[in-house]
Specification:
The longest helix is centred in the middle third of the chain and has 13 residues. This protein is of the alpha/beta class. It is built from twelve helices and 13 strands. The two termini are 27 Å apart. Strands 9-8-7-12-10-13-11 form a seven-stranded parallel sheet, sandwiched between helices. Strands 1-5-4-6-3-2 form a six-stranded mixed sheet. The chain has two domains: 104 residues, 2-Layer Sandwich (60s Ribosomal Protein L30, Chain: A); 164 residues, SPOUT methyltransferase, trefoil knot domain (Alpha/beta knot, 3-Layer(aba) Sandwich).
């Protein structure tokens, strides 16, 4: 690695090394709350996600990389002052307690890049109410980002978009899609309505309009797609606040889909990707998956 600072890379073999505290036992509740060792931080997993996090402007505290990724990610870590801990895959797995995707992790400082007011100035928002499953939330983020929506708002009771599993499932989309968490006590439907949004609630309930019918109707101005948690769905108050309640028609006695799957269908049908002009280039610039 010619031209790089050799002192930045440190070889570690002991999972108990105190310098690796941010990565130890990543299933612990402290990381769900976003703090370890008293520092507000989060973990990015996988080389693509690590790269996207740093490029988005999050400050790395350190990198934990298998030998193969030290050189491959050199352009990322060499542009920072953060130490790079190089360890064999078995050491990393023993440290974290699970198989790490491609042996690449980074601990980064948390920062709120966007506020709720910032997002209320956008045109198309996905808004989730008390969605507590991190994997589902990450998938919703990826759907919203990939299908042309402008941002995501999460209620105070929702999961953490920067929790490791949510970040991983989003494939780093959480770093490129503007998002904000509403404070406890904020009436999100009311705030959205005051900002001029048309509220579209997704629910399998009786009386909801078929999604295809709703998609055929042009929504003028700003629109917000409201999604609820697995099981309970949207609360009665959020449903009552909606301008329109839409459903995805189901077969074989099933009444609904997983919230992430439903989000993908609704984001496509109701968003810019669902319009004839928006379907061009819908695979993205490269036409490849980010997996």
């Amino acid at each position: 690695m010619e031209g790089l600072n050799p002192d930045q890379v440190v070889d570690l073999t002991d999972p108990a090394d105190p310098r690796l505290a941010h990565y130890r036992d990543l299933r612990e509740a402290s990381l769900r709350r976003g703090t370890t060792d008293g520092q507000a931080c989060f973990i990015a997993e996988g080389p693509l996600v690590v790269r996207r996090a740093v490029e988005a402007g999050y400050e790395p505290i350190s990198f934990l990389l298998a030998p193969a990724w030290v050189e491959r990610l050199a352009d990322v870590w060499s542009a920072t002052a953060a130490p790079v801990y190089r360890a064999e895959p078995d050491v990393i797995e023993g440290l974290t307690g699970f198989h790490v995707h491609r042996g690449a992790l980074a601990a980064l400082r948390r920062r709120q890049l966007w506020s709720l007011d910032d997002l209320l100035g956008l045109d198309r928002l996905v808004v989730v109410e008390d969605l507590v499953d991190h994997s589902n939330l990450g998938a919703v983020v990826r759907c919203a980002a990939g299908l042309g929506w402008d941002g995501l708002v999460v209620s105070a009771g929702s999961a953490d978009p920067l929790y490791r599993r949510a970040v991983k499932t989003s494939m780093g989309a959480v770093f490129v899609l503007p998002w904000a968490r509403a404070a406890a006590g904020v009436d999100l439907p009311d705030r959205l309505r005051q900002a001029g949004f048309s509220l579209i609630a997704l629910s399998p309930g009786a009386g909801a309009v078929d999604l295809a019918q709703a998609a055929a109707q042009s929504v003028q101005g700003r629109s917000a797609l409201l999604l609820g948690a697995e099981g309970p769905g949207l609360s009665p108050s959020w449903l009552a606040a909606a301008d329109q309640v839409v459903r995805i028609p189901m077969w074989r006695g099933l009444d609904s889909l997983n919230v992430a799957t439903a989000a993908a269908i609704a984001c496509y049908a109701l968003g810019p990707a669902g319009s004839p002009s928006g379907r061009k280039g819908s695979m993205g610039e490269t036409g490849q998956s980010a997996g």
